[in-house]
Design a protein that fits this description.
Layout: H1 7-20, H2 26-47, E1 64-65, E2 72-73
Length: 74
């Protein structure tokens, strides 16, 4: 749409316009464009983080608490 958009943002935004452009007004299109730009920026930041095959997601242990007697079941 504009030359200041990243190529990935422009591609995604054009896909949205193609599918929903006839039902979105200018204000909504502007909001969508800003959202797409933000999503692409976040995706680029995530792509810069190099992960090793040993890297795992952080997991939090949360024991089950029986609501009837308040005991933990692990």
């Amino acid at each position: 749409m504009t030359s200041d958009m990243r190529p990935e943002s422009e591609t995604l935004f054009n896909m949205i316009i193609e599918k929903y452009g006839d039902i979105l007004n200018d204000m909504q299109l502007k909001a969508v464009k800003e959202s797409v730009d933000e999503l692409v920026e976040n995706a680029e930041a995530l792509r810069k983080i190099k992960l090793d095959s040993r890297d795992e997601p952080f997991s939090v242990f949360t024991p089950y608490i029986d609501e009837q007697d308040g005991t933990y079941d692990t």
